[in-house]
Amino acid sequence: MTNHRRHKRLLKLLDEHGQASTEELMAWLSASAATVRRDLAWLAARQQLTRTRGGAQRLQRSSGGLLRSQTFRLDICQRSAHKRAIARHAAELCTRGETVIINGGTTTFMMAEFLVEQQLRILTNSFLLAERLLNTSNNEIILPGGRVYREQNVILSPFENDIAQHHYAAKMFMGVHGLSALGLMEADPLLVQAERRLIGQAEQLVVLADSSKFARRTGLVLCGLDRVSCVITDTEAPDAVVQWLEQQGVRVVAVAPEPLPEALACELQQGAAELADHERAVQGLARAPRGAATPARAASAASTSGSEPGSGMAEATTLSIAGAL
Q1: Are 104 and 71 contacting, i.e. CB atoms less than 8 angstroms apart?
Q2: Distance set, CA 287 to CA 26, 180, 204, 278 (Å)
Q3: Other CB atoms closer than 10 Å to residue 172's CB: what's the count?
Q4: How remote is the C-alpha of 291 from its chain's centroid?
Q5: What is the pLDDT of residues 216-260, one digit of tens each?
Q6: Structure-derived torsion over alpha carbons of residues 80, 85, 90, 95, reported in degrees to the nearest 10
Q7: 3-state SS, residue 2
Q8: pLDDT one-digit tens code per residue, 96-138
């Protein structure tokens, strides 16, 4: 095993276990004590871990990171066991050596954990996913040029002819805001613009959507169901919805939610605490007298005044698939 691969494997083990002794790392890595000690010293010098008495532990990372938006941090801790099982199955569909496209949703972000041992060429418009894969795997990562939109977790070029137009993929893995009788739905015009550029570059479109996405009733139409090859969801998806999708020619795979590793569970618990704080703040605004000037409302008004409407994209309010049956 090369130094690079061993370092990534060591960090992954610390992510999973939180901390480990030198003896445990020796057994897990099939390496000598001298090699493990050199690896720990090298990684500690680069602030990737902290040395402890007789071992090491992973440095505590911010639950959001500099590029993770508040929305991303709140979304990823919801239905995380469902999302992780869906992400695992999606990763298993990848074939070594092929080119795939992965978009910037929270469920697709969880695929990174299961792509560590793969050898893929991955085109993604998510800087977060690219960063995680570069740090944990040997996959080849391709990013389109353009501006990083932190809130949407997407990189978007102002030019139509960006690098994405020169790559063709066997599969595209995509998370969505919702699914309806009209097709795949997104809530943000910027995301619709970014995803439409990638959809046409893949032979198969694989949608990662936990069962809550079938209840989403509003959004912007991204594409029709005729473009979707497969939907991976969880076992809580309504039978009527699954049958309806299959009648439209879409293959549906339902997977059972799975327990989270201890380290990931701790990270998501921190995110859940932030979600609780966020909800309390929202409730506080709801109880405030109408028209009262609050910092949050002032910030919201300032943000709204500077926003740009999505050009040529009509908002569609539709019945959910379940409601259309």
Answers
A1: no
A2: 57, 34, 48, 15
A3: 24
A4: 37
A5: 766 789 999 999 999 999 999 999 999 999 999 999 999 999 887
A6: 130
A7: coil
A8: 999 999 998 889 999 998 998 899 999 998 888 998 898 888 8
Half-sphere exposure of 101 (CA within 13 A, CB side): 29
Q: How far apart are CA 185 and CA 220, in angstroms?
A: 5
In sequence order, the β-bridge partners of residue 169 are: 202
Question: Predicted confidence band at 84 (pLDDT cuts at 50, 70, 90)?
Answer: very high
Distance between CA atoms of 260 and 210, rounded to whole angstroms? 16
Q: How far is the C-alpha of 236 from the C-alpha of 230, rounded, in Å? A: 17
Place of tokens 């040395």: 51
What's residue 167's pLDDT?
82
DSSP codes, 54-82: TEEEEPPPPSSTTT--HHHHHHHTSSHHH
Joined together, the tokens standing for residue 45 give: 């010098």
- Cβ-count burial 247-273 (b if 16+ within 10 Å, e if not): eeebebebbebeebeeebeebbebbbe
Rounded to two decimals, what is the model's pTM?
Answer: 0.66
In the numeric block, which tokens belong to residue 205?
Answer: 């479109």
The yes-or-no verdict on residue 187 having pLDDT over 50 is yes
